Amino acid sequence: MPSLRTHAVALSAVLAVALAAPGNALAQKKYDPGVSDTEIKIGNIMPYSGPASAYGVIGRTEAAYFKKINDAGGINGRKINFISYDDAYSPPKTVEQARKLVESDEVLLVFNSLGTPSNSAIHKYMNAKKVPQLFVATGATKWNDPKDFPWTMGWQPSYQSETQIYAKYILKEMPNAKIGVLYQNDDYGKDYLKGLEDGLGEKGRSMIVMKESYEVSSPTIDNHLVKLKSSGADVFINITTPKFAAQAIKKNAEIGWKPVHFLNNVSASVGSVIKPAGYEAAQGVISAAYLKDVSDDQWKDDAGMKEFLAFMDKDFPDGNKLDGGTIVGYGVAQTLVEVLKRCGDNLTRENVMKQAASLKNFRTEVLLPGITINTSATDFAPISQLQLMRFKGEKWELFGDVINGDVGG
Fold first, then answer.
1. Which one of 4, 146, 354, 409 has the largest count of C-beta atoms within 10 Å of its C-beta?
2. For position 8, what pLDDT does the model report?
3. Does pLDDT of 274 surpass 90?
4. Hey, what CATH topology would domain 39-157+299-378 get?
5. What whole-number distance in Å separates Cα of residue 215 and Cα of residue 243?
C-alpha cells in the first residue's frame, strides 16, 4: 500500500505541472472584486439631473459604447457590467453613490465620474479604499498627483493649462485688455481662475478689472453679466458649466455687451450650449479644443469621425451628434477599453492603475491631429495639448498651432 508521503509527493508533482501549464487559471488569472471569467464591473457617477444635467449624455454615450463592445464579444471574453448612478451634481450624493458602488456593488473601479466638487468629495475615500478613480471627468489640476493620490487619474487637459493658453493669447494679441471674469464658486471655477492668473503673471493680473463668482444653485447669472459690462471690461473670461454658459452668451447679446469672449472648453458644445443660446449671439467666441468637432466639415472624410458617426447611428441613435458630450464619452470609453485589454487576465486594481499609467502616444481617433495620450508613474495627466478655436457661422473653426499646457501636478 503506498505511503501517505508518496501520495503527498505525487500531489505536489501534479500541482506543479498544473501551475506551470500555459493558460491555467491558477497560473495566470488574477482578479480583484468586480471581476470574474465572464464579467468586469465598472462603476460610474453622473449628474443625470440637477444644474449640470447637460453632462449626463456622457454617461449615456459610455453605456452605449460598452454595449457595443459587449455585443462584439467583450474584452478578452469578459462583458462590461456598467453601473451608472445619478448624483445630481451634489457632492454629498456623490459620496453616497461611491460607497454604494465600492461596498455594495463591489465594482473593480469607478470610471469617469463627473465634476470637480463631486470628485473632490470622494477623492480621499477612493484612495483609502485603493479603488481606481480612473479618468475622472474634470480637468482639475489636482488629479495629477500620483505621489499622494495614486488611485486617481484625470483624462482631459487640465483647466489651468487651458486658461494659461488663453492668458498667453491675450498678452500677445491684447496687451492692454481689461478683463472681466465670471466663474463658478467651487473647486472647478477656482482652478480655471488660478490658471488664468498664473498665465497672466504678476504684471498681467492687474488687467483683471472684475471677478464675479456665482453659485451652482443659482437660477440665473444675468445680474453678474450686467455688473461685468459696467466694469468696462473688453475681454470676458467665461468659466461656467453648460446651463450658465448658454445663459451668458444669450444675455450678453441682449444687453449689447460685445467683449472678446473666451468660453471654457467644458461648455463649448454646439448642441447643448451654442445652439440653445443662439448662433448669432455666439459669433466670435473663442475656446480651445482637443477633440474633433462633428460640425466641422474638415473631418467629413476622416476615418475616426466616420467610425464615431457610425457608432452614433447604430449604437446610440437617440444621442445628439452635435452635443460635445457624446464625443467625450466615446473617446474616454475607448481609452478605458484599451487599458482593460492591456490588463489581460491580471484584472487587479493595482494592475489597472499600472496599465493606465503606461500609455505612450495612444490615440483615440476623435482626438485632434497631433494630440496623443501619454502617462507614466509620475505623470497622471493623459492629455495636455489644446488648440484654439473661434465660433463662426454654425461651427467652431480651429486656428493656430496645437499648444502644450505647462502645468504639472
1. 146
2. 43
3. yes
4. Rossmann fold (3.40.50)
5. 12
Q: Which residues pair with 239 in a beta bridge?
A: 183
Q: What pLDDT does residue 82 have?
A: 98
Helices (H), 205-265: 222-230, 242-255
Question: What are 137's strand-pairing partners?
Answer: 114
Q: Which residues of the chain are in CATH 3.40.50.2300 domains?
A: 39-157+299-378, 159-289+390-404
DSSP 191-219: HHHHHHHHHHHHHHGGGEEEEEEE-TT-S
pLDDT in tens, 196-253: 999 999 988 899 999 999 999 999 999 999 999 999 999 999 999 999 999 999 999 9
Q: For residue 137, what is its C-alpha cell?
A: 471627468
Indicate the pLDDT class of residue 25, thresholds 50, 70 and 90: very low
Which of 151, 154, 84 is CA-nearest to residue 116?
154
Task: Retrieve residue 403's grid coordinates.
Answer: 499648444
Given a cut of 50, is residue 409 above it in pLDDT? Answer: no
Kindly state the helix (H) or strand (E) to which residue 167 belongs, with its residue range: helix 159-173
Q: Using CA atoms, how far apart are residues 349 and 371, in angstroms rounded to an integer?
A: 28
How far is the CA of 101 from the CAs of 14, 131, 404, in angstroms?
40, 10, 36
What sign does the dihedral 278-293-68-41 (CA atoms) show? negative
Please give the C-alpha separations between residue 170 and each of 167, 200, 235, 276, 282, in angstroms, as whole numbers.
5, 8, 9, 28, 19
- pLDDT for 9 equals 44
CB atoms within 10 A of CB 196: 27
The grid cell for 362 is: 495612444
What's the CA gap between 383 and 138, in Å, rounded?
12
Q: Minimal CA–CA distance to 264: which of 290, 289, 239?
A: 239
Report the percent of the chain where pLDDT is more than 70: 92
- Residues 277-301 have pLDDT tens digits of 999 999 999 999 999 999 888 999 9
Picking from 294, 295, 289, the residue whose alpha carbon sits closest to that of residue 305 is 294
Give the Cα separation of 56 and 118 in Å (integer): 14
Helix H or strand E encompassing 387: strand 385-392
pTM, two decimals, is 0.85
Give residue 203's pLDDT.
82
Determine whether domain 159-289+390-404 maps to CATH 3.40.50.2300: yes
* SS3 label, residue 135: coil
